[in-house]
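new request in #modeling-help
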Amino acid sequence: MNVRKVGLIGAGVIGAGWAARLVLNGIDVALYDPDPEVERKVGEVLANAERAYRKLTLAPLPRRGSVTFARSVEEAVADADFVQESAPEREDLKIRLLAQVDRACRPDVVIGTSTSGLLPTRLQSGMAHPERFTVGHPFNPVYLLPLVEICGGERTSEATKERAATFYRSIGMKPLMLRKEIDGFIADRLMEALWREALHLVNDDVATVEEIDDAVRFGCGLRWSFMGTFLVYRIAGGEAGMRHFMAQFGPALKLPWTKLEAPELTDELLEKIVAQSDAQAGDRSIRELERLRDDCLVSVMQGLRSHHWGAGEVLAAYEEKLYEASHAHVMGAGDDLAQPLRLHEARVLPEWIDYNGHMTESRYLQVFGDASDALFRYVGIDEAYHRAGLSYYTVETHIMHLREVEAGVPLHVTTQILGADEKRIHLFHSLHRSDDGTRLATAEQMLLHVDTNAGRACPAREDVRERVLRIAAAHRDLPRPDFAGRQVGAPRR
Amino acid sequence: MNVRKVGLIGAGVIGAGWAARLVLNGIDVALYDPDPEVERKVGEVLANAERAYRKLTLAPLPRRGSVTFARSVEEAVADADFVQESAPEREDLKIRLLAQVDRACRPDVVIGTSTSGLLPTRLQSGMAHPERFTVGHPFNPVYLLPLVEICGGERTSEATKERAATFYRSIGMKPLMLRKEIDGFIADRLMEALWREALHLVNDDVATVEEIDDAVRFGCGLRWSFMGTFLVYRIAGGEAGMRHFMAQFGPALKLPWTKLEAPELTDELLEKIVAQSDAQAGDRSIRELERLRDDCLVSVMQGLRSHHWGAGEVLAAYEEKLYEASHAHVMGAGDDLAQPLRLHEARVLPEWIDYNGHMTESRYLQVFGDASDALFRYVGIDEAYHRAGLSYYTVETHIMHLREVEAGVPLHVTTQILGADEKRIHLFHSLHRSDDGTRLATAEQMLLHVDTNAGRACPAREDVRERVLRIAAAHRDLPRPDFAGRQVGAPRR
């Protein structure tokens, strides 16, 4: 099935999201929606989606597909290779529209519906070719979230579900094949249970909508972005795993911790859960799963930190407090300045590794930049200094890459000041493995002190300048580093 | 309240998680748990937590607190400034332990319990000083997840809840104050509703535990890591917001989409939800909220990509497919080589911005590295080439930083080959703003072709070498770039 054009029926939030995912993946779409404002609304969703894709990946996207606004259902699906219906959630409306689509498009074309939970057997009841119809239930925003639930009705063919899954996969999605037809499928049953419980909490004045959202986004929601409840609870069982967890929390299923009654925890259900959980975990130990969970949590929280939102905002505030508490880093009268300074330590993180299996080149400069930041703190530059519009900028850098380094290796940087005046610091960083001392790289840099509001060089504040000059004086007689003053490609001395 | 030492009662998964968060924040702990293996188990959780914190932040952590294993409840709490009880979820056991703690510790000490849902009024029933007792319900892993629910019993004082919140905040957590005492508090009621629905699905053979987890982690779970259901649904309502969403999906509350009955959607409940949702959203428009949501989703998925897990694995597979599809990037016979090559475009992402409000220095090198990667693809280097153990490594770099740049600015790199032989490429990249052409930085680099298995230089494959030399020959007569051959600190020519 080579899909070059998709017919979209309904262009609300979901239909417009499909349009965005499709055109960004190089597929033409023809849309039908009776809303007179459809062009503007779809255009705005497309703009947001393009913006998101520019951030999502640096990989080359195909040439954008085209968008046509059709004047009828028939026109939208006439020469489509695939059809996706995203009309409002009314069974009668969908049955009628789907029968209309069925009559108007080629008989080999798969017809998907975006319904969140209506039964496909009923939706396909008016179709002459019901075998080519399936649920393909996406999640908002359709252009970013990978999940699509595939659920056939009684008259849907297996081939249709496979073809739909292949197509959705080709546009970056993750199909989940349902084994049974059920109202709400899987995802919406879970979401709906949580949602109805939340509505009870608001109705009973236990919590506000904001408090309920906070209870999710600062806690369990962070885990759910990469592990479902079963795997999370397996880990919570500790070394003894799922059986222990169920033994420990089984009794809580009888407690009034939600208005939903749990099923009886029979031996049969317990054994089924344990066996399926074992299969899910594979040969990963609980400690390995814990580390995977922690790595994912750290990455998620760091990702959110860039947007000053949710758990990322909590992390940013926490870090600010840590930096404020570390005033001891400022240079003191008794400090030994007779050697290069050792102010920064780090460890090679897994996400710093490139396709060669080693720390990627820009991370070397990141570590050197962090070492410069440590030097700034050491000479008395703090948040207030930056808020006052004063800062050092790097104007020139020369790096020698001497050795590769793998994930997990501890690192430290030593820093020698080669020269300084009231505006400039000329320094030389050396990056070492801390386990065996091997030198991995060097960076010679020129830093310029600037008035960031005026955008031009200016002298550093007197106390900062005094500390910088004191270090420079103490370092004046240290041996000049081997790679200082080097130009790219010069013969090794 | 200056907390220097915390007494911990119970050191299972939750108690050990508290120990880890506390000692990493410089607080001493004394633990009591009758488990004979407690020292080993706590040690393993501490090791995982230390590992996670090394990744979580580069901010300087305080000097680690100490861990003491006490032989009794009394010994653990004797000189504690705060006590946290994390015994198994049995009401009788907790009542007994809390009364024991109450007798043994200073009367000014706040006593928190980690219970997931037992009622504080009952838990404090055996205490002589019940006013200093509160629920402080954390989430696993306690050392990473910020949420802690604070819920007092009938005899808890307001001051106790405030003091507990201040303390939890000081160790990087996000307290959520409950207005009402209720079984399961807020978070566990939501989690428990979803969990019980999930157990029904397994019990009824609708889905396996893995399928249920997938329905969360590839869809709604990604959103829940930064927005709860109310805000997510407000956005799903499109421009018309929460009232429209409730009008559209209100009828679904009557559908059998979960085994949990919803409350009646009365006008009063509807108005309450709309008003609280408006308050939550503040003055953010739906389009702004959409962009915030998309930015967070992109960051979360990119974070997970580094761990080849969940939605991150889907993204990685998608990108690999995009790169494979872009074979047109390989140099063709008719290509114009008379100018520097323009092979790479990017855009300044918000997370590339440092405390000065500009793109941080290491991101310049990242963009240059991506431009080198684009050059490699252009001369015919693909995944198979790397899998065969062949690659170019950067051995030396000189960067000139000429201008600052802010988030959102489109960038492109032009690349001139200054010289090449069978093993080396000497190149010069220039980074420009694409909107007005301003040159932002330059990078002169020496790349060496290596046999990555043997770890030494070797000639490039013949077709790759031929393309490199052809570009070098075509670029030989281009003007030599102004900053080529420069050493750090040399006078500007």
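bot summary: The domain at 326-475 of chain A is CATH 3.10.129.10 (Thiol Ester Dehydrase; Chain A).
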